[in-house]
Write the structure tokens for this entry.
Amino acid sequence: MVASASKNKPGHAPDKTVPGRARPGFVRVIGGRWRGTKLPVADAPGLRPSGDRVRETLFNWLLPALPGARVLDVFAGSGALGFEAVSRGAACAVLVEREPRLVANLRATAEKLRAGDSVQIVQADALAWLPQQADGGFDIAFVDPPFAQDLWASTLAALLPKLAPGAWLYVEAPAGVDAPLPAGWTLHREGRTREVHYALYRAVAARV
């Protein structure tokens, strides 16, 4: 879900673009070995996990790319995207989250699932953390930042060098907003709800 150097979903100004989405409760892993697992959703400003229908569509698109993939979720929040990816066959996922309360939830879920090395929880400011990572280290990345903070351009600038040749990139934004992408990426599939525009991109053939 990615103002000043990197503000993760919660802990900042409320995201008023999508009213009513930041509610306490839980979402579930939809498919794979952890299907049905409840993921806590804290009552935190800007936290709005991707809806079940959007996630189901996204992971249907990603199905051929998931086995063995190295996944990065730079604004992990509830962890719905990262845990879902590993549940469905990704080799590993790094979930980056700034808010301590959400990090604690993510770590508790990873421990409950006995995820081991397949899920790494990182408490960090995403835009400060990304430049420290090796280039080309991830095959799939999820970018779903707090909508109110307009973090797409700065996040993508820091993130794209960290993706492998032929990588996949998922971006979620408010309905009617298209996140800017640099040359070298092409739209694979996209969809819209009343609240969000979601799109899956891939590095063009020249990078494969």
Notes: The longest helix spans residues 100-112.
